[in-house]
Design a protein that fits this description.
The protein is of the alpha+beta class. It has six helices and five strands. The protein has one domain: CBS-domain (Roll). The strands form two sheets. Strands 1-2-3 form a three-stranded mixed beta sheet. Strands 4-5 form a two-stranded antiparallel ribbon. Bound molecules: S-adenosylmethionine. The site of S-adenosylmethionine has 13 residues, from strand 3, helix 3 and strand 4.
Amino acid sequence: VVVSDIMKTEIISIREGLSIEETAIVMCKEGITHLPVVSDGGVLAGIVTSWDISKAVAMKYNSLDRIMTTDVITASHQESIESAAKKMEEHNISALPVVDDDRRILGIIGSDEINRLIGGYA
Ligand code: SAM
């Protein structure tokens, strides 16, 4: 099984420059905890998670730039899910944006997709 077999392709991402509140609203509305951040050209610029929102609240940070992670760990569509799971485990994260050679987002794979596969729903 490779990443593209189970990745979520309905991509919800946000542009750079949003406020923390706007970011939190997108997460709540869409029911997601991981949001890729894209630049104007549609290229992956970072990732923000509900953990980062908690940090913003605790530290009283107001801008996304201060909390998003720009050094994003990604997967490629033909990568094995074992390799993707290993990356998540090693870095203590629960989702990886799936990108092409130009770092444009093709999907996202996380523990939800892997659980669905193991549970027999993928
Ligand atoms: N284990 C929890 C989780 O999976 O979200 C919390 C720990 S994790 C180290 C929290 C940090 O990881 C956040 O600052 C978030 O921006 C970052 N993060 C999440 N996914 C990432 C990814 N694919 N690449 C780089 N950093 C990521």
